[in-house]
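To: structure subgroup
Subject: Chain for Friday's discussion

All,

I'm putting the inputs and outputs inline so they're searchable in the archive.
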Amino acid sequence: MKNVTVSLPDEVYRKARVKAAERNTSLSSLVREFLESLADDEGEFKRLERLQEESYAQIERFQASHRAKREELYQRGNLH
């Protein structure tokens, strides 16, 4: 396991200590959890790319028989 030294403004340090205490954990654990979640994050570009692939897969499964019937369309617009 590696140790990391981080410099923080006094106010940020104080608020982070309070947050850690509220969660019944240490500041070190709080920072470790944050960095682990950051490291595991797939990144915005990868996330959008994955969503695009999922959307294409759904489009490929679309069939004309999945269309709504005329009566269903009229019922959707009827809010009375």
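Points worth raising on Friday:
The radius of gyration is 25 Å.
The chain has a mean pLDDT of 84.

D.
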